Amino acid sequence: MKTIIHDLGKEQNAGLLAAADQVICADGRYAPCQGCFRCWTKHPAACAMKDALQESCRVLGMSDDLTVITRNLYGGYSPAVKNLLDRSIGLSTPLSTYRGGQMHHTLRYGRKRSFRVIVYGTFTEAEKRTLQLMAERNAVNLGFRDHSVTFCADEKEAGGQA
Predict the structure, then answer these.
(1) Please, what is the Cα angle at 32 between 41 and 160, to 5 degrees?
(2) How far is 157 from 59, CA to CA, in rounded Å?
(3) How confident is the model at residue 138 (pLDDT cuts 50, 70, 90)?
(4) Residue 59 belongs to what H/E stretch?
(5) How would you list the strands of the sheet with 112-120, edge to edge?
(6) 135, 115 Cβ separation under 8 angstroms
(7) CA-to-CA distance for 65 and 99, rounded, in angstroms?
């Protein structure tokens, strides 16, 4: 399954659905992660907060390919996309294991294929390096085998890259 997470606005969902099985618009209309860890312990992979992101861990867990389309914010994801990714901690378990010679949480859904980040806006070279490192580390933590980062000038170009 291919999933796209984006902050382009809900009006872009229909166009993005042509390129993916599941589209999640990071519109910022949900609460941030409370750090309660109930998605790890009491309700595996389901957020305790009853909003649009309650089942997002399960959707992302079933995705073999995940594409994140985000505005650049000082070398990071937009706040709405970052919030959504924070709420996906239930993709792993509280247990730890070694992956690639490093300690990581055990994956609840196993390994996946590709993690793509498409970033739009203006960038400094330092911001590009930060985004590339963040995408690499997110791919490892979320269990993806491959990752890539594409830099775009604007939202329209970013949406077309999906």
Answers:
(1) 110
(2) 26
(3) very high
(4) helix 56-61
(5) 22-25, 2-6, 65-71, 112-120, 144-152
(6) yes
(7) 19
Tokens of 93: 């378990």
Per the listing, tokens 């390994």 go with 111
Statement: residue 8 has pLDDT above 90:
yes
pLDDT average, residue stretch 16-21: 92
Q: 144 near 88, Cβ under 8 Å? A: no
Query: Which of helix, strand or coil describes residue 159?
Result: helix
Checking if the pLDDT of 125 tops 90, the result is yes
CATH superfamily of 2-161: Flavodoxin domain (3.40.50.360)
pTM of the model: 0.92
**Residue 65 forms beta bridges with which residues?**
2, 114
Tallying the residues shown for the chain, one arrives at 162
State both tokens at 106.
């055990």
Q: What would you measure as the largest C-alpha separation in the chain, in angstroms?
A: 43
Torsion angle (degrees, nearest 10) of CA 123, 126, 103, 89: -30
Cα 60–chain centre separation: 8
pLDDT beyond 90 at 123:
yes
